[in-house]
User: Fold these one by one.
Assistant:
Number 1:
Amino acid sequence: MTNKLVIIVGSVREGRSGPVLASWVAEQARAHGGFDVTVVDLAEIDLPLALPDAHPKLAADDYPRPAGMAPLTAAIDGADAFIVVTPEYNHSYPASLKAAIDWHFTQWAAKPVAFVSYGGTAGGRHAALHLENVFIELHAVPIRDGLSFPYYRRTWQDGRPLDPETPQFTKTMLDQLTWWATALRTAREATPYPA
Ligand SMILES: Cc1cc2nc3c(=O)[nH]c(=O)nc-3n(C[C@H](O)[C@H](O)[C@H](O)COP(=O)(O)O)c2cc1C
């Protein structure tokens, strides 16, 4: 069974590192097998901060999103699993990511999410913890294992992590994501999720 994996590049900052990490994670996911991988870069999406006068859960398909958000909405809707690549800003995750999350609701439900975080000393730990909390509200399923990189500029070189153990940790994360993606997809197909 092939699961559709959407990797979200959360940072949109000028001079950001997010695309480098996402590209390496995508390479690992493709090599892992069993995933149809799409990388969605939030810097390429129209993501206004002002939400419409409706709730995306209640409005469902009638929720009025900008045309430039359509690729993101389609990707989230069609996904079986997510990897969110997030930096840490002021002990949390970037506003771009919160906007992308809040413009959607049902599209996230009953799907697993893994986190690849990076930042200063804490390696994006606060960002990942905050995201776990938020995704539970959306009926998504944060998985146990993720990746965390302190000081990106010291721990990565030429687009790859320097720690030789990282590929093994990545495999564990992808194994867990596969398990949950398959289990939840089978369950969603058998019975609509009661969100
Ligand atoms: C506005 C801002 C706030 C930051 N706050 C934190 C922080 O609270 N904790 C941390 O570990 N790193 C923090 N950092 C460091 C970033 O997480 C780090 O530079 C990361 O590589 C930035 O990712 P990006 O290049 O993809 O934007 C901050 C960086 C910026 C620009």
Note: The chain has one domain: 3-12+29-123+137-190.
Number 2:
Amino acid sequence: MNNQFFTQIETSRIKYLSCSNVSPSRKTMKPKILAAAIAIALLFAAVPGLVGSSEAQIPPETWRQSNLPLDRVIIGYRARYYKTNILSELSSMPDTEVVMEEDALNFVVVKTKDPQGLIQKMKGNPSVKYAELDQIAYAIFTPNDPSWSRQWGPQNIYAPEAWDTQKGSSGITIAIADTGVDYNHPDLRGRVTLGYDFANNDKDPWDDHYHGTHCAGIAGATLNNNIGIAGVAQCTIMAVKVLDSQGSGYYSWVASGIRYAADNGADVISMSLGGSSSSQVLEDACDYAYEQKNVVVVAAAGNSGPSDYTVGYPAKYDSVMAISALEKGDTIAYYSSRGPEVELAAPGSDIYSCVPGGYRSLSGTSMACPHVSGVAGLVLSQNPQLSAYQVRNLLQDTAEDLGAGGRDHLYGYGKVDANEAVQVA
Ligand SMILES: [Ca+2]
Ligand SMILES: [Ca+2]
Ligand SMILES: [Ca+2]
Ligand SMILES: [Ca+2]
């Protein structure tokens, strides 16, 4: 099963699927290498030994799929003042259409028949801070055996002990930036505040996939309601849809989702998604949330293990906590990305959580990420005065060291410890 991402190669049409149907799909799947774009993707699992370095490599099979065409360019301008100049220059160009304007982060998104040509043209404009291809981010998880299994994540990170002190406050908001949330799920109903759907540009962030609902359940499914599972924190969940029904989305959607969450009261942003290439717009959005809006930003490290130096974006940015995935027994999951940027580890394999219409088990760093987001929510519920920077340091300081002594590339500072973190908060 699985592959990883990372490369300097654009794989578009990559298909995304569950382990259960990997074999048949493999035979028919042909990776398509598109022109000069940049890295992308990630998601599911990894073929052991697949990647030798962070250098561009083409996975033998790629099966992340997106229907999104790579026909959009993000143009960032240096200050609000320059936007008019940019728009007027664009209006004189044939075959270009402005499809999105993000004033808070100073960028516009332009649909064009010639993305590389437009990028080159705009880079010569002194008002332009950056011009880049609007890349695709993917949900990072591996659907696994559909048989139901027991939850082990909350127990493993000492959440039940933490709950004696703090179960989570509805005054603290954890934004799930993902495929949306099934806010009518019996284990989430009444706990979800509706954000926005950047994939469809509407106000209803309904989950037309299932990945986002799974992540929301891990962080915040209702405790003690006699149904389903127990989420880590009884905080408010904000549903922000930045990935489409296939589990993929443009970087511009992710960036706007981060900005939206930060501007609308999120205390924590949980991103179980990523891509293989860096992006100015994504980094700007994460920095905005963490540095300017005091939001704890947490992201899946990526499923590009077991090779080292495989942490993806946005996890790799300084403003974002990169989370690796554990198997039962606290060993690193083989698919989990590794590297110096890994900050904390949390349960990721065989995680049982909500999906629209029920529950199922999934695996991935996607599942590890919302465990940490939930613990951040518990810490802030216990002490709302803490800054995002303080929460981050507290989670690092209270983590349970695993593997090699001290911070390491597999577990970061160690396994997140909900009880210790709440006690210290
Ligand atoms: Ca919608
Ligand atoms: Ca429940
Ligand atoms: Ca980071
Ligand atoms: Ca260690």
Note: Confidence is low (pLDDT under 50) at residues 1-63, 143-149.
